[in-house]
User: Which sequence fits this backbone?
């Protein structure tokens, strides 16, 4: 047969399902996050008005679960926008009180963007299906409609921000190749720009000795002597 295979190569796909967005928002998505911020502010304002108007008009009992979901959305939005100067104090308050465990686990920033988008979109669908029938109850109907519009805007801008951050990540077909053999090893290092590279540790064969593949040695190539003949 031909010569043996070269050093083994392990390819790690960059777009694996476990690879998630982490860290603060990149500068390229600043405009999308600015719009998302004001959508969350509008959601909090209309949610508060919806709470007060619901209590005044007697529909608070039917809307209580939806108001809890809006509160959860606003809290998740604060974690997404924790690096924004307008939300920094609110996030600091949450991270030292009711959401301390979430903050200690490193939750926040881009890591909370997709969960926020999913929860906000679900609340939007439920409000459209079950709450718009109360639009005739004023002034509750006005705040309900405003909160639905804010949920829709927040979902849209969260999706556009997610797309920008996702498109900045390495392409789906890219991979990281880490070569080595025997006792050699390597590790993956993430760069500051969001990319990753592989660094291979020096192998024992490369220190003080030449690789076996280039030595020209062939097993049983000598003439030798025949015994008993």
Assistant:
């Amino acid at each position: 047969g031909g010569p043996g295979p070269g050093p083994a190569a392990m390819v790690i796909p960059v777009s694996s399902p476990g690879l998630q967005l982490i860290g603060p928002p990149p500068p390229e998505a600043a405009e999308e996050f600015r719009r998302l911020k004001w959508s969350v502010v509008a959601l909090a304002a209309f949610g508060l008005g919806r709470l007060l108007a619901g209590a005044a008009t007697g529909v608070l009992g039917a809307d209580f679960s939806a108001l809890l979901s809006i509160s959860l959305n606003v809290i998740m939005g604060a974690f997404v926008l924790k690096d924004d100067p307008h939300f920094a104090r609110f996030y600091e308050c949450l991270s030292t009180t009711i959401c301390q465990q979430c903050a200690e686990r490193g939750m926040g920033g881009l890591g909370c963007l997709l969960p926020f988008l999913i929860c906000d979109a679900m609340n939007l669908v439920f409000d459209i299906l079950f709450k718009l029938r109360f639009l005739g109850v004023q002034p509750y109907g006005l705040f309900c409609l405003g909160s639905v519009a804010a949920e829709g805007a927040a979902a849209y801008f969260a999706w556009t921000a997610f797309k920008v951050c996702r498109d900045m990540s390495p392409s789906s077909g890219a991979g990281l190749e880490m070569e080595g053999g025997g006792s050699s090893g390597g590790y993956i290092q993430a760069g500051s720009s969001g990319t990753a590279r592989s660094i291979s540790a020096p192998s024992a064969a490369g220190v003080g000795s030449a690789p076996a593949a280039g030595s020209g040695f062939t097993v049983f190539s000598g003439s030798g002597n025949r015994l008993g003949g």
